[in-house]
Every structure is written in C-alpha cells, then in structure tokens.
Amino acid sequence: MNKAKVNQEINLADYNDVWVIAEQNEGKIHPVTIELTGEGRRLADTLGKRLAVIVSGADVEDEARKLLHYGADTVFYISHPLLKDFSTEGYALSISELILEKKPEIVLIGATSIGRDIAPRIAGKVGTGLTADCTKLEVDETDHKLLQTRPAFGGNLMATIVCPRNRPQMSTVRPGVMEKAAFIPNPDGRLEIFIPNLKEEDIRTVLMKKVKSDRKKVNLIDAKVIVSGGRGLKSPEGFTLIRALAEKVNGEVGSSRAAVDAGWIEHLHQVGQTGTTVRPDLYIACGISGAIQHLAGMSESKYIVAINKDPNAPIFKVCDFGIVGDLNEVIPAMIESIDKN
Ligand code: FAD
Questions:
Q1: Which residue ranges have their beta carbon within 6 Å of ligand 1?
Q2: PROSITE patterns annotated for this entry (predicted)?
C-alpha cells in the first residue's frame, strides 16, 4: 500500500518529466487525453523535459501504443486484470504507485467525472497538492513552478495557484480548453509495461452491472457549430426553434444555465463554467445575456453571433456579429434565408 509523504522534506531535483494520465473506456480514449497530451508536450518542451502518457487497464496495449503518435516520448501502460473495469481504488492506487517510483514533476488529469474522482486520491496518496478545474497552465522556466489558473469565487476572478514545496505538481484540466495534439507518426516512441502491486482486497467496490445509457449523445466539445438558447426563450418550447436552427446549420444544441435550472433542457447541453467548455467555429447565442460564467465556457469560439432584444446585453461585447431583436422573429427569418440559399 502506498504511504502518503505529506510534509516530508523532498528534493525537488529528483522530480522530472511531464505526465498525462489518459482516460479510456473499453479501449476508447477520451478526447481530453489528446488535449492534455498537446498541452503536456508544450510544457515539456518549455522545460526541456520528456512527456509520458499513462494508460491504465487490461488488454488495451494497442490503444495505449497509439498515444505515442500524439507527441509522447513514452507511454507507461499500467496493466493488470483488476484494472479491466474502472474502479476508484484500483486506478488511484496503481497510478500512485507508478508516480512514487518514477517521480514526475508535473501530472495532468482531465477534469472529467473519472478524473475528478481519482485526482484528489492520487494527490493524497503521493502527498502533494492538487489544483482542480484549471483552464490555463504556464511554467516558470527558472524554478519550474507550474502556474495553474482556474476560475474562483463563482467565476468572478481567475486565481493562479502554485504548489511550492511538494511534487509532483498536479492539475485537473477542463475538457475542451486545450488544443488537441496533432497526429504525428512516432516510430521511436517507447511503450513500457508496469505491473502494479494490486490485490483483490484493495478494491472495495464491486461492479454489478453495466447499463448503456439510451440518452441521445450530446457532443458539444467536438461540435463545429453550436446554437444555444437561454432564459430569453421563455419556455421549454423555445428550444423547438433552437433545434430547428441547429438542424439547418448542422449544429449541436447548447444552453445557458438559466435554461437548465428552469428545467427546459438537460444539463448535458449547458455551456459555461459549470457546464461544458466549447470552442466551435460558430457559436450562436439566442436570448442569452452573456454572464461571465457563460462566457467562461464559450468565449474561445471562432465566431460568435448573438441575438438579444436588449442592445446593452453584455454578450454584444464579445460577439463578432450581433442582432438586436426578438429571437422569435430573427430565428425563423434565419431559417427561411438558409432554406432559400
Ligand atoms: P439571463 O441573464 O436572464 O438573460 C436572458 C437574456 O435574454 C436577456 O439578455 C434578455 O434581454 C434576452 N431576451 C429575453 N427575451 C428575448 C427575446 N424574445 N429575444 C431575444 N432576447 C431575449 N451560467 C451559464 O450559462 N453556464 C454556466 O456554466 C454557469 N455557471 C455558473 C456558476 C456559478 C458558480 C454561478 C454563480 C452562476 C453560473 N451561471 C452559469 C449562471 C450565470 O451567472 C447566469 O445567471 C446565466 O448564464 C444567465 O442565463 P441567461 O443568459 O440565459 O439568462
């Protein structure tokens, strides 16, 4: 069992390399892994360090090897039959064991539900700090401090946090925030297999049954176009108009939190600080005022179009194209115009 090293004196010079903890489900790699690999490569290059990606599982060696082609120097494949299905204890223990043995300087984990589950446990086991939900990372080249920026106080300010005395420096990073790494064939990359010291009694949870969700998948992160609706829709029926426009422009349906809180649409569609962070080519905000917590999730969109009847709505300060008007008139006119062309 791993022992926490909290408050022990450590030699910072013993710690090297930038790590990305990959997330996989039945061999399918979560997109946030590719985003973090891109960001990890950038940080590793700035520090003159190597980049390793860590994959845990059973029978996923081929999938793990593919990650070498996204800029990693090494992939550590933590392989064990007990890691076939995700368990908090199994994954956190095995990854912590590898961290304690290899001593990375920086560890990045996706702020997904699984990442948010294991990251604090890993940090506790290896005796370091954790900055959760980061939206920006930089490194100080002189002392190798990782400057981890995340929203604080309800998104009203951005806090930059450092981990001065402990290693590794650990962050969870929101999906959709970092640029994905490009696919570059890397025949020289190395895959190392690590067999953790894991026993059945270490895992106290039992997986009884897997049930596939029959909900329609909402893929806001990869959408090129998003049409989002807010409180200005006035009712759940307002989303019929949003869906109609989304269909015309091959887009996904997004929403503000106000629309989710009103019960008009599921949380899966929510864009913003407590929803999904998106960066589509085109974001059309309909009846959304542009609160800071909404902007936190969509301001990186390439083009922003806003429809709002209030000319002073804050969304007009960030949009590329603003339409002052009633969405019940503007959206049907847009659909009609698309149909004509
Ligand atoms: P409103 O602010 O009420 O705006 C509605 C807009 O519709 C108005 O500008 C109005 O002029 C316009 N309008 C009305 N009728 C029409 C019409 N007929 N035609 C055109 N325009 C019309 N919010 C998020 O969106 N995402 C988040 O992730 C999120 N996280 C949060 C986290 C925290 C900790 C907190 C405190 C808040 C968070 N919020 C989030 C909430 C956020 O502060 C706002 O309350 C919310 O974004 C407002 O949603 P809205 O723009 O739809 O509603």
A1: 154-155, 230-232, 256-259, 270, 272-275, 287-289, 291, 293-294, 297, 307-310, 313, 326-328
A2: ETF_ALPHA (PS00696)
Q: Which of 153, 231, 255, 264 to mutate to test the pocket of ligand 1 (most atoms within 8 A of CB)?
A: 231
* Residue 16, annotated as binding a ligand: no
Q: Tell whether residue 290 is among the known ligand binding residues.
A: yes
Q: Report the candidate in 2, 191, 1, 195 with the shortest Cα–Cα distance to residue 81.
A: 195
- Tell me, rounded to whole angstroms, the distance of Cα 111 from its chain centroid: 5
Does 288 appear as a known binding residue? yes
Q: What is the pLDDT of residue 2?
A: 44
Distance (angstroms) between ligand 1 centre and the Cα of 246 equals 19
Q: Which atom of ligand 1 is nearest to the CA of 288?
A: 51
- Whether the predicted pLDDT of 243 surpasses 50: yes
Phi, psi of 188 (to 5 degrees): -90, -5
Among 130, 83, 85, CA closest to 109: 130
Rounded to the nearest angstrom, the distance between the alpha carbon of 149 and the centre of ligand 1 is: 24
Residue 239: Cβ within 10 Å count: 20
Taking CA atoms, 202 is separated from 191, 193, 256, in Å, by 26, 21, 42
Q: Indicate which atom in ligand 1 lies nearest the CA of residue 229.
A: 52
Complex ipTM above 0.95?
A: yes
pLDDT score of 1: 43
For the ranges 2-11, 217-226, 315-324, the lowest mean pLDDT is seen at 2-11
pLDDT reported for residue 225:
97
Unique residue bearing structure tokens 């490009």? 182
- 8 labeled part of a ligand binding site: no
User: Whole-structure pTM over 0.80, yes or no?
Assistant: no
- Return all residues near 311 (Cβ < 8 A) that are at least 6 apart: 324
Max Cα distance, the chain (Å): 71
Residues 307-316 pLDDT 10s: 999 999 999 9
